[in-house]
Amino acid sequence: MENDALKYRRLREEMVRKQIEARGVSAPLVLAAMRKVKRHLFVSEALMDQSYGDFPLPIGEQQTISQPYIVAEMTQSLGVGPDDRVLEIGTGSGYQAAVLAEIVFRVYTIERIHSLYSNARRLFDRLRYHNIVSKYSDGTVGWPDESPFDAIIVTAGSPRVPQVLIDQLAVGGRLIIPVGDQYTQDLVRIEKDEEGIHRSSLGGCRFVKLVGEHGWEKI
Ligand code: SAH
Questions:
Q1: Total number of domains in the chain
Q2: Contact present, 161 and 188 (Cβ < 8 Å)
């Protein structure tokens, strides 16, 4: 009988080839990270066998772990490397943070739901991701004390691009954020240079709501 580690490794390899490389993600650091991070550890035991499928999955509290391809695509668009410090807003399961932690110097990640924050923190410690710093708070205000960041990734949908996040981006930095209504958003990429900011679109997407001072109001 095939053991679990082997089974999941095989599913991971297939995920990278069929869902990620096949759709054009080619950055070697991103592909290596997607091959390495054990996605099945970031979902509940009942969902482990589905965790390498081409879809998001529930993680409790009505939140989701994003589809693998979206994680790879957003990570590639951030254009990050080994010296970078990255801010993530919306820790959720912790999977996106772990993928980034394989590539960059340090990841700062913020989650507004306490149970998700503490589950992810426990997992980061168990998997020895010592370069992930996490906190429980409203990420729409960013993390001023640790700014500026080389890149900022928002993994929840926002009605607009919060100016505070642009302010916390280093010159030369990139921000990726889904912007739109609660059903569909445009994945917006903002690059900041000496002249100002340049905005482009990576296409449509669907994320759970970014709730907070500069996001959606809590209902
Ligand atoms: N990156 C996650 C995806 C999580 S889904 C992963 O890899 O699993 C989006 C997450 O954003 C949810 O956990 C939600 O609670 C969180 N979130 C929403 N608004 C937030 C805010 N203002 N600050 C921090 N986290 C927020």
A1: 1
A2: yes
Residue 41 falls within a domain, yes or no? Answer: yes
Cα-to-centroid distance, 194 and ligand 1 (Å): 31
**pTM across the whole model:** 0.98
Catalytic option among 44, 51, 66, 134: 66
Residues paired with residue 68 on neighbouring β-strands, in sequence order: none
Domain housing 113? 4-205
Residue 138 in any domain: the answer is yes
Q: Is residue 218 part of a domain?
A: no
pLDDT tens digits for the chain (219 residues)?
A: 569 999 999 999 999 999 999 999 999 999 999 999 999 999 999 999 999 999 999 999 999 999 999 999 999 999 999 999 999 999 999 999 999 999 999 999 999 999 999 999 999 999 999 999 999 999 999 999 999 999 999 999 999 999 999 999 999 999 999 999 999 999 999 999 999 999 999 999 999 999 999 999 986
Residue 20 near residue 86, CB atoms below 8 Å: no
In a domain, 42, yes or no: yes
Q: Is the CB of 95 under 6 A from ligand 1?
A: yes
Q: How far apart are the CA of 70 and the centre of ligand 1, in A?
A: 15
CATH number (domain holding residue 81): 3.40.50.150
Whose tokens are 């992930």? That residue is 132
Q: Residue ranges of the alpha helices (H) in the chain?
A: 4-15, 28-36, 68-78, 95-101, 114-126, 163-167
